[in-house]
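Question (not urgent): is this output format expected?
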Amino acid sequence: MRRWRRTATIVWRLTPFLIAFLRDRRRWILFGRPARRTAEDHRRRAERLTATIAALGPTFIKLAQVFSARADILPEPYLSAIGRLQDRVPPHPPEEIEEVIAQELGQPVDQIFQHFDRRPVAAASLGQVHRARVAGEEVAVKVLRPGVEELIAVDLDISFRVLYLLNILAPNHHVRAVTTVVREFSVRIREEMDFREEARHIADFREHFGRDPRVRAPRIYEAYTRRRVLVMEWVQGDKVDRLSERFASGELEFHRLMETLTEIYLRMLLVVGFMHADPHPGNILVDPQGRLVFLDWGMVVQLSRSTRDQILRVALAAGREDLDAMINGMYELGMIDPEISRAEVREAAAEILAVIDSAREIGPRAVQHAVQEIMDTFYTWPLILPRELVYFFRAAALLEGIGFRYDAYFNGLDVARGVIRRMRGDLLRALAREPTEVARGLMDDARAAITGLRDILRRAEREEFRVRIHPRDVLHAERFLLLQVRRVLLSLFAVTTALIAAITFLALRNVWILLAGLLAAFVMFVVVFLIPTHLLENPLRHARGIRPPGEGRE
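Got this back:
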């Protein structure tokens, strides 16, 4: 019964938004032009959606945080709205929290800690944090909320059933992407609810950056850490967006701090391949010694050397405006939907290059502007934005947002260029491949080229070469024929309706029946000529529902 009540609640609250999004594409769901929406309409809907997600509980709050990084699924202003969704909920009663601690550590709280503050310093959807003292040291005790594992399991089961139906009824790029995200989330959320994983992530970060005096993470008390309890060092510091007084007093130097932040994220992405996946100001502190402290390591992104190499290749290709090399890199990164043609990819890549070119000419907030435009492009086109790049884009936007908070003329691109120049040697060493690996790659490429050439010669000998029509032209022809068939059928139905109305009038002499039938026939004839011409538009292009048709970027 509880499962059915929960299902009804989820469907009841989210169905109006699903219908609204469908009407953004087709006014009458299955046909019609897109409904007219203003930017203000979308902003208000985004706020309502955020409030609804918050009310649905921890599963949907955490899912929203994942979707806030998926610009290929959600457009603005929804991305920004759910990205600001506060993962804060009313705290659990302290008695229940203490019971969890006792179950995990095998002793009552008063026997483990010299002092335990029953009032939480933070209460999120998965857990809450209490301040305590153990062995004479101040610690933060993070505790998993009672019952949250069962609730998330039920919510995920319901979500998969709903997505199964959506994949049958409306199979498209966005539904498939949503399904993939939820499937990946179901694995990651189980890891995030095991605090031993977070402890391992912190240990990995300390291993990679332990020798860097500019940055640190809290120390873990392994003797008191279990699946549902994490005990770590209590860190004193100021949030990275609340440093005005320390900058004014000269205790901290603004540009040096921003350079350090930029370098740390670049090292995590391209050198170490181990990235903090929850970048927001609340998770970055500056301690009294001026060191950056990264908190909340429940989510991290691991990047293989090959992925880092491919990301750098795409970035370099974009920098020198090499469209073909950029497209090849996008294929290697899995950014291109299998159904999209290379011609469409060239248009999407050209649009991304145009965004990059325009960002070079923009002063302050250039990074945020470029990130927003690139994310718009990934939503508009059926491209897949790799999660590694998503989190890096979010970090880039965060850094420039922090910089702009303190300096209205802050330019994140200038800071990044200077940092990259200093890091050039480290980047080359991190991404340099071993000679044997390079030789193996060259041998594979040569083997593939020879095999392809031999296949071409054999086909030429057997006269098997054929002329193929571009898939885009086939799709256009199919849609044109479908439109004509619809018009013919609707015209026949209109004629039939008029004949039936006339015959009924002759039999009953009821003029109202005749008028109603003729009116219905006339309406259908009008519809024949007003069937939306957008049915002939490129089916691979996804309308965002925000920018009016034909309107260019500002």
